[in-house]
Amino acid sequence: MTFLTIGHRGVMGVEPENTLRSFVRAEHEGMDVIELDLHLSKDGALVVMHDADVDRTTDGKGPISDFTLAELRELDAGQGERIPVFEEVVDAVKAPLQAEIKDTAAARALAGVLDRRDLLDRVDILSFHDEALAEIRTLLPTARTALVASRYGLDVIDRAHAVSAGMLVLNVRRLTLELVERAHAADLRVIGWTVNTPDHLKLVRGLRLDGATTDFPEIRRAARFTA
């Protein structure tokens, strides 16, 4: 498997995060994979946003779960962009996707979309939450899943195996060669986040990671020359 560069919420370093504008830019810049985040609206739509509330990334205030999709559509998500739903991203770009879910309710909603639209070959499902990945495994036994972690130790390998995840997506600042080697020996791929500088890129290359999640298009270009 070649080294992957993964666009973080599109390319959030240069475009409004988790918007169609950001995802289309990520694809245009040649990102191998595009990562996004999912929450459920009040009426059950799979909306694309990182935080549990709308305060940081829109001109609104309050939890996403307090808004219907129609109400969320009225908010400005940056440069006039509107909050997209997952299905719109699927239609807007052709690149493979990483969809991060926050809970079991989102897991069930996403599983339904992936099954209906035959997207299992195109979408990896990520989560910090073991129970959400376990729910996906129950609903979609053949889905590709990844455990995400920020603060972790070697036990993260056992956690991934417990929920049948095939990949770890880990905070690059805590990564060690020992962990990467053990993960690879356990047949787990390892992605580092967030890789936004040449030094970060050298680190993930030195650790022999399988890929890097980045906010910036230039990391994609730099990665081509650091094999």
From TrEMBL:
Transmembrane segments: none annotated. One of its GO terms (molecular function) is phosphoric diester hydrolase activity. One of its GO terms (biological process) is lipid metabolic process. Residues 3-224 form the GP-PDE domain. InterPro entries: GP_PDE_dom, PLC-like_Pdiesterase_TIM-brl. It comes from the Bacteria. This is Glycerophosphodiester phosphodiesterase.
